[in-house]
Amino acid sequence: MSLLAGAAQRDISPTRPLPLCGYPHVARLSTGIHDPLLAAALYLCNGDDAVLLVALDLIMLNTGFARQLRQRVAKSIGIPDARVLISCTHTHSAPVTIRYLPFEMPPMDPDYMRFCADQIVATAVEAKQNAQPSELGWTTADCTGVGGNRHSPTGPTDSEVGVLAVRQTPLTPTLSPQAGRGGQNPNPLSPFDGERVRVRGNLLAVAIIYGMHPTVMHEDSTLVSADFPAFARDCIPVPVVLYHTAPCGDQSPRHFVNGQTFAEAERLGRKLGEEVASKLAGVNYTDNPKLTGTIVTTDLPRRQLPSVAEAQALLAQRRLEFERAIDRPTKRTAEVAVFGAEAALRLAQADTAQVYAEILPAEVQVLRIGEACVVGFPGEMFVDYALDLKRRAPVKTFITAYTNGELQGYIVTPGAQGYEASSSLFAPAAGKVLVEVALKMIA
What we know:
It is built from 10 helices and 20 strands. It has helices spanning about 65-75, 110-130, 230-235, 260-280, 310-325, 330-350, 355-360, 385-390, 420, 430-440; strands at about 5-10, 20, 30-35, 40-45, 50-55, 85-90, 95, 130-140, 150, 160-170, 205-210, 225, 240-245, 250, 290-300, 360-370, 370-375, 380, 395-400, 410. The model is unreliable at about 175-200 (pLDDT under 50).
């Protein structure tokens, strides 16, 4: 067997003004495009086994839509849908692509959703059509300083970046009869038989997996953007870069930026991209990787939601804390805690039965790609769960979030308070359930 790999990407930016998603308390109609939103796909095939990675510059996709999209993509390229992983970068400067119970949001634009789905399928088909003899290998990068825990700059964080590099298989030159004594070419870099010998493979694609909220740009920006991941991709000298966001429910650049500007997004993105690019020369490649994948569903423990009176009291308390906050990071933390309390009130007033029915059972996906596993979790998990899973996994493991759907909120750790905990539909034990399911699948 020998690896065939192909990659492709397409622009999924809106072609007309649309409401932007990510800061639902502010009406944001797009006024232009700062950098294009991309759908990127990487097809890997070794004999009868194949997998597909898809990365989208969107905030999230609802579970039903994501499942139908995954099945459509799988059918279009002829592989099982359990081997198609579709994740979102979670940029907060893309159009609304989700119905989200905790917050009142503008509706999705049906034309844009159809456009995205069609482009994603076309990208997957093109990636398969581009497949050629290739090699792949894994490495890691360290992007300390790009962001961290948004509650405390010294809180738990994961600075490891998973890097999957794919290159064209290097060719062994076939020498002409006149190549030299004994059939040896005296200069292996010189042209002969009308062609130059290629002694190194060309990089086709790189997939990176890193857990940090793409929220350098805030609600005052009305330009479509992939945020700092766009600048990171620009620094990696490869035709196609897939950016997968790892669990980052409590991670953001909040304590690591001097302001919410594109200059700061570029600074952080370049730091990440240059670090990844610096590791590509040291990748160990194989042309015969193991490729497989599976999806398992699981129920999750639900959170005991507050009564309306309890939620109203919490909202009053959070508003008072916001008024008393002074410095910028503390004030921002207090502000989003108010948003969380508002979400808690919406949940207390809502009939959540239908929402639970739409998102449960939750899907956990695991792909084996060469020497490593890639886990796909839906929703927004705190980084502690990712760290625990990576530490306990029997093989090198990287984790994508916002994968194949969502969970209408956060999966928080025990003792978590504030915005994420207030807007969650699930008990903290849900994180442990997801981790244990993934560990069994990896094993």
